[in-house]
Amino acid sequence: MKLSDELPTDHKLSRVYRFGGGLTGLVLLVFGCLGFADQLAYFDTQGDTVAGLNTNGALSTVSVVFGVILIAGAVIGGNTASTVNTAVGVLFIVSGFVNLALLGKDTNFLAFRMPNVIFSFLVGLMVLTFGLYGRVSGNLPHDNPYWQARHPEQAAAEARAARRPRPSLTQ
Q1: Rounded distance between C-alpha atoms, residue 116 and residue 139, angstroms
Q2: What is the dihedral of CA 132, 134, 7, 89, to 10 degrees?
Q3: Which of 36, 79, 80, 131 has its CA 20 to 30 A from that of 90?
Q4: What is the pairing mode between strands 53-55 and 48-50?
Q5: CA atoms within 13 A on the CB side of 9
Q6: Alpha-carbon dihedral of residues 108, 114, 118, 120, nearest 10 degrees?
Q7: Structural contact between residues 134 and 8, judged by C-beta atoms closer than 8 angstroms
Q8: Which residue windows are transmembrane per the record (predicted)?
Q9: What does the domain layout of the chain look like in residue ranges?
Q10: CB crowding 148-169: b at 16 or more within 10 Å, else e
Q11: Does residue 168 carry a pLDDT above 90?
């Protein structure tokens, strides 16, 4: 039994993964399209400002790609949305650190500035939270599939106890 396969696609937490990731993907998609509309140079390290963030053609492309990935995960839903959100969240946080190190250098090919780094960290943490919501907690209820996957013996015992017929009081 794999942990990633335990949450049914119609579980109520699926809405958190789907809406959060989908809305974030839509924001990234719009940002990338606005960058394309300005016909920015692809690898211009100075970039141009769009929606308060610095961008160039390369960053617009990356934004559209990750926006589409998040929207696709939201459309698929279930565990896929959760896993996609988790992976993209981690990548955004890593990107924030890498681009923080590249600020002011000629190798800053995505034309990041400090607002972009902060945006990358915030979006990464938000999408990571959407992806991990319901998977990671110290107080998961026993009917949560992730708790059951982590405690298979106790979950099996509880399931057997729930299936046992209960003696009626009228006998």
Answers
A1: 35
A2: -10
A3: 36
A4: antiparallel
A5: 7
A6: -20
A7: no
A8: 16-37, 57-77, 84-104, 110-133
A9: 12-133
A10: bbeeeeebeeeeeeeeeeeeee
A11: no
Amino acid at 122: L
Strand locations in 25-137, DSSP E? Answer: 48-50, 53-55
**CA atoms 26, 40, 124, 65: torsion sign:** positive
- φ/ψ of residue 53, rounded to 5: -120, 150
pLDDT score of 114 more than 80: yes
Tokens of 129: 């939270």
User: Could you tell me the CA-to-CA distances from 54 to 42, 50, 65, 89 in Å, in that order?
Assistant: 13, 6, 18, 20
Q: What is the pLDDT of residue 1?
A: 42
Cα four-point dihedral sign 116, 126, 26, 76: positive
Q: What is the pLDDT of residue 135?
A: 67
- Contact between residue 146 and residue 3 where contact means Cβ atoms under 8 Å apart: yes
Tell me which residue of 84, 89, 82, 86 sits closest to 8, measured CA to CA: 82
